[in-house]
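Escalated from tier 1: magnesium ion holo job.
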Amino acid sequence: MTDLATVLEIWEPVIGLEVHIQLATESKAFSASATGFGAPPNSLTDPTVLGLPGALPSFNVRALELALRLGVATGSKIRARCRFARKHYFYPDLPKGYQISQYDEPLCEDGAVEVMVAGGASGPLERRKVRLQRIHLEEDAGKNTHHGTSSLVDLNRAGVPLCEVVTLPDLHSAADAAEYMRALHRLVRYLGVSEGDMEKGQLRCDANVSVRRRGEDRLGTRTELKNINSFRFVQKAIEHEIGRQVRILEDGGAVERETRLWDASAGVSQPMRSKEEIADYRYFPDPDLPPLTVDGATMRKVITTMPELPAPKLERFVREYGLTFDDAATLTAERELADFLDAAVRAAGNGALARPMASFMLNELLRVLDGRPIGQSPVTPVALAELVGLVASDVISGKIAKDVFTSMWETGDAARVIVERDGLRQISDEATLRSMCEQIIADNPKQVELYRAGKESLLGFFVGLVMKASDGKANPGLTTELMKKLLAGS
Ligand code: ADP
Ligand code: MG
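Tier 2 regenerated the structure:
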């Protein structure tokens, strides 16, 4: 059995993800050192980060606020009072010999992340919920890099606040797991909880994978794939692991409970260690930190500043703006992009312009932005609304609008100013259009003969010539109508 699709008729994958998200705080979770990526190694440290004797942690409340935003956005139960715990293990990137984490009292429990799924050709959108076991706060470890026979330790990342978001074993395909990751990534960026830059390791995923025969209730033995740092690798690593486990089971073997490391360049995973028992971590409440309390004022602040979330926004773009699922998904992928369209619709004061404005964003604006954030666009939502308004009221043609847009992008001038300055108003005056059409007819007797003999596909040819002669300014609708009449006449 080689083909994954055939394998999946018999075997059901079960996947649970643990995602670590770096919180966008300016200082570390338990001390005043700055956070930051790319600073000289070991420059962002202090006695607490280094685990020097006598140094005491003090919790950064900004991290709590960010974690609460994620907790509220996922509809989690929030624990009003919870303790930090020490999780002990030995590794060079962990100078204290333990990580400050949360164990039996996580800040958030029983939430869910909503993943929007297109409902086929015309079917309704589906909001799928991936249930969360918990979200807890912890600190990041440093980073080891290995060079030949020596290893270097950089503690700049040590002590950076993290949220660990743990799902129930609710996912049943590699593609769904990747889609969940994308949804979570989008969510934390919307909330301002994390920049979620995966290349900088700000969002990292451990995937727990098992398989069982379809119809079986009991979960199979799982393996854990560590530190996967892209959406594509999540999918690849899980697919590979499903195949590996099925092969073992079909050969009559047993899957071993172990942690494996995904090697993206080789496209295979390697065993890293057999899973430590929970007891090995010797969790206990951190005596240096008072319990974390969440008061009403903090909760109110978090709740009242909650933005519209990506899933409901996507749904609204489809319902109110009449966008396709794919277009709505692209335009809600980043909050700034969605805000841009909302602002343009407000400026236009006309919901009917939402769709043409959205397609302008998708076809023109995103193209010239070429990956840069929309905040850098010299064309504002108000300016886009004016431009599309000119098309809607027949002042300029859709084709000219693209040139006007280019000019707006280059000069920062308003659409109306450019249209007047460059004389781009659409020609909708019937007498003018008629004489242009007559000229084209006079100039092309052969084609006219063919058309009148039944080759009606030539209509586009004539209209095209009028468009060309008018520098694209002839109103295409009126020109087509007139041309038809004139060709049919005499
Ligand atoms: P640990 O902290 O040891 O990794 P947890 O019980 O916290 O263990 O589970 C971690 C993740 O593993 C969760 O996302 C959970 O949904 C997932 N998980 C648990 N059992 C299975 C299983 N049999 N197959 C796949 N995923 C599983
Ligand atoms: Mg784990």
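The radius of gyration is 30 Å.
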